[in-house]
Write a structure and sequence with these properties.
- With 233 residues, this protein is of the alpha/beta class.
- The chain has nine helices and eight strands.
- The chain has an eight-stranded parallel sheet.
- It starts with a helix and ends in a 7-residue tail after the last helix.
Length: 233
């Protein structure tokens, strides 16, 4: 009942934000971040109509995806990803939202065609994670904005990969409207060379309204739906 009520509340927030932004014809997609929560919670979400879920650790994600295979959910990987995990991630992921360097793009480009030969999986949607921090040493991660064009060309030119757009996290303590406005500007420049890469993955529990105002197409919401994270095992 708690999950049902929280999910309904978040959907109402998204609907209200979408209406306020005049985006009823183009509402954002909800991705529920299920990291650290048990597979049973994911099963409950699926029963409530959720189709897209996200994880940020490969081991946990691969186990849940295998356990819940019959639900045919779309799994999104949203955490920092090591290149040596590419083979594992492409076995279950519909999309990777954290492509932030050429080495990772190359690893995914090698892993996806191999997996396609084995299983016939579809192409992997890739969002380039962009750093919105002025401080290059920020722990939030992501490619610098000047690195985006070359990385986008690499992803778009790789068989088996689809350049879906950009992803970012608003810097801690920042104005989310300003941060996501910056992301929208980077996205607009990306679209001049890659007009199909219109995705903007942005917005979490605390700042989804700002993300919707800035044109986010995918919202990654976790704690407001599933509650506080359980203690790490």
């Amino acid at each position: 009942m708690d999950i049902r009520e929280r999910l309904a509340a978040v959907r109402r927030r998204i609907e209200a934000a979408t209406e306020a932004a005049g985006r009823q014809a183009n509402p954002p997609e909800l991705i529920v971040v299920t990291k650290f929560h048990p597979a049973d919670d994911v099963r409950r979400l699926a029963a409530l109509g959720v189709t897209d879920v996200a994880e940020n650790r490969d081991q946990e994600a691969s186990e849940k995806a295998a356990t819940l295979k019959e639900l045919r959910l779309r799994w999104h990987f949203v955490g920092q990803l090591q290149s040596n995990k590419a083979k594992s991630v492409v076995r279950y992921a519909h999309a990777v939202h954290s492509v932030d360097r050429p080495q990772l793009a190359a690893a995914l480009a090698k892993a996806v065609p191999a997996e396609q030969e084995k299983t016939g999986r579809g192409p992997l949607e890739c969002f380039i994670q962009v750093s919105l921090d002025e401080d290059a040493g920020s722990h939030r991660g992501g490619a610098a904005r000047l690195e985006v064009p070359a990385l986008a060309d690499q992803v778009a030119g790789s068989p088996g990969l689809v350049l879906a757009g950009l992803m970012a996290v608003a810097p801690l303590g920042s104005d989310p409207d300003a941060a996501f406005g910056k992301l929208a500007e980077i996205s607009a420049r990306l679209l001049t060379d890659h007009p199909a890469a219109s995705g903007i993955s942005a917005g979490m529990s605390q700042d989804l309204e700002a993300a919707v105002r800035a044109g986010a197409t995918h919202l990654r919401i976790g704690s407001d739906i599933l509650g506080s994270r359980p203690a790490l095992r």
